[in-house]
Amino acid sequence: MSVKTERPVRAPDLRRWKADGRKIAMLTAYDATSARLLEAAGIDVLLVGDSLGMVVLGHETTVPVTLADVLHHTRAVSRAVRRPLVVADMPFLTYQTGPARAAANAGKLIQEGGATAVKLEGGKPITPVVERLTEIGIPVMGHLGLTPQSVHQLGGFRKQAKTEEAAERLVEDALELEAAGAFAVVLEMIPPEVARRASAALRIPTIGIGAGPDCDGQVLVTEDMLGVFEKPPSFVKQYARIGDTMREAFARYAEDVREGRFPQE
């Protein structure tokens, strides 16, 4: 069911929706065509994720993604839509080195890219950055659990917060992000019971990805849920098998060209 309203979604809406018990639908977008389709389907939040490094650019991790990469794709998405909240990921080392550099880089994503918010990975160590960005009027979404920019430190794309100590630390980090001014926080690949605890403890919404059903919203990589890739993460529900359809169409085209069936006079 598509959402009819044309009023743009903004950061305060998500907090209000949590209070009202209204779930938040979020997907990734990297280009104008996909963004238009996502908006027409009623998706609330579009994430121009640094996952584009793996989905679009062919990298094995998100670490090589640059600010220029995200800025390029954010421009395309923001030009195409009016209603969804457009959140741009801040790539590795564009914010971890301090509030001043983070403000300059986030400012580019907002001013030049057209994003309406940015997303940062990490907990307490980045709260000074979150505070500074919110002070200058840039909405910030947090990201805890599996933080892909730290994949080398974490030892791979593995479930996080599996011990009680780690779970307590995650909830504490979430509360720190809220206190610093974050308007929402993504919880990635953590046990559902930990996500439930964090969601109950926070006044801001949680957006789950591989974190169970009790978050205030959900996000997936669009290409994963569309079935573009053969082996998506285990927590992904595939709503289509677009990859199979594309391969079949490409093969039929190639055969028609080789056999002289296309084009016809």
Give a summary of the structure in a few sentences.
The chain is an alpha/beta fold. It has one domain (11-225): TIM Barrel.
How does this model look, in words?
With 265 residues, this protein is α/β, with parallel strands linked by helices. Helices cover 42% and strands 14% of the residues. The chain has one domain (11-225): TIM Barrel (Alpha-Beta Barrel), CATH 3.20.20.60. It is built from eleven helices and eight strands. Helix 8 packs parallel to helix 9. Mean pLDDT is 96; it is low at 1-5.
Defining traits:
14% strand; TIM Barrel; eight-stranded parallel barrel; 265 residues; alpha/beta; 8 strands; single chain
Name of the CATH homologous superfamily: Phosphoenolpyruvate-binding domains
Structural domains: how many: 1
CATH structural architecture: Alpha-Beta Barrel
What's the CATH topology name?
A: TIM Barrel
Biggest sheet statistics: 8 strands, parallel, barrel
Q: Describe the global form.
A: globular
Helix count from the secondary structure assignment: 11
In sequence order, what are the helices and strands, one letter per element?
HEHEHHEHEHEHHEHEEHH
Low-confidence stretches: 1-5
Tell me the radius of gyration. Answer: 19 Å
Helix content: 40-55%
Mean pLDDT: 96
What is the CATH C level class, in words? Alpha Beta
Number of strands: 8
